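In practice, a research group might receive sequence data for several interacting partners and want a quick structural hypothesis before committing to experiments. The following worked case mirrors that situation: the sequences arrive first, and a predicted assembly follows.
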Amino acid sequence: MLQIKNLVAGYNGMEILHGVDFNLNLGEIVAIIGPNGAGKSTLLKSIFNLCQIYSGEIFFKEKNITKLPTHTLIQEGISFVPQGKQIFPSLTVKENLEMGAFVMKDKELIKKNIDYVFKKFDFLKTHQNSYAMNLSGGQQQILAIARALIQDPELLLLDEPSLGLSPKAMKEVFDKIVEINKEGVSIIIVEQNAKQAIEIAHRTYILENGKVALEGTKEILKDNEKIKSIYFGGI
Amino acid sequence: MFFQLLINSLIAGAIYSLVAAGFSLIYSVCKFVHFAHGAVIAFGGYLLYLFFSSLKLSFGISVLLTVVCTSLLGFLMNLVVYKKLRQRKASNTIFLIAGFAILILFESLILIFWGADVKSIGLIKISKGIELGEAIITPLQVVIIFVSLLLLLLFFVFMKKTKIGKAMRAVADNKDVAEIVGISAEKIYSWSFIIGSVIAGIAGILVGLEQNLEPTMGTSLMVKGFTAAIVGGVESVPGAILGSFLLGFAENFGIWFLPSGYKDAIAFIVLFIFLLFKPRGILGIKR
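A structural hypothesis for the assembly, expressed as tokens:
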């Protein structure tokens, strides 16, 4: 569904990814993990054209989407949830969701999608008229994901959804991610919390120093001695 | 005396709130101090003088043309100056200096076109005030208060109900996320200048009708609007409006104790007090 070929990308002339190949099949959850500064977020942002791409190509459903503008990418079926509970704090919950639909023209469809996320996350419906800043951390993260779901994505990009959440909230968010995936949305998730991410993902890429160090399923990774010691601490 | 000061406070507050609302809208969306907003207000007054008093167009057409021109003026200031500065990633200090430069440029243009002498639009002949007990209010002043409140109300409905209004609040809240959902921040900056400058144009018209026109009127109104915005909380439009009425009251009731020449000094003292002790203002957002 998504192929990245020999991607070189970074910010302000600084190269962070040095030739990354990446591949996502329809219906998969793929996790990207690795140490700080390895380029995990950069890889995710490059898909959504939020960093500079120096060379390489990105294909989505066989179409070259490298460097397309944000609103086009949303219309192509890709949605991005940025790092760190990124919502509009002084807008109401409902207004936050409406902003998710900013590029959509069909009012009926917007209403249908809002109803869909209200059904899926009932606290959003009960709190629809309260300001988003009054939600708890976990609820804010789910609001950010719900705002992306309004766009009816085929591919959801999640940048560290567990960042700054309590263990309980984190579990809820991960459960919801699995649930969304089961409804047919492919997901790429960047995580600091590697263990959890590997658990829910069909496949995982491990990035080190801007390159793919390892790629494989949960079972393969668990057999790898190095990974075992770093991420699974004695399983 | 009390009722007269009350009425005077309301009139001043109504005018200041229009100045501060547009200024604070642009600040909250674009995150820099647009001091040239004062120039847009002054141009509002002078353009009405041009269309109505010089070209003898009907009053309604003159008002309409004035508002269209001021919104265009604000739009162009953003497009020609501020947008270029953003592309060069200029600091806030540069934006401030650029704002002052535009303000001075436009005041000089007013001097070139209309001269330094005081102009009067003279729509309403000196009419007898309405007596409210011991206080007197002119029909024009009633109109000013009414129009200001109506405009502020319309502005709130616009911000709360329309797609563009919501997008402006979204960009003010979190520009990066706004771009991620496909809102073009640059387009919304343009919109904030257009809407802010429409309000500025109407403020200029009302001031022009109530007082005389002078080239420096933009600067003095801007100082009041800025003070009001600081008092109320510069990132919050309701705060800026609250601050405007408080400033109106402080200035007018201040002269109960002080000679009326100290009116402007009161505004500056209030500004300093808030900058020193409560720089985020009464309704300021904590970050």
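Before designing any experiment, note the following. Chain B has a mean pLDDT of 91. The beta strands of chain B are 130-132, 135-137.
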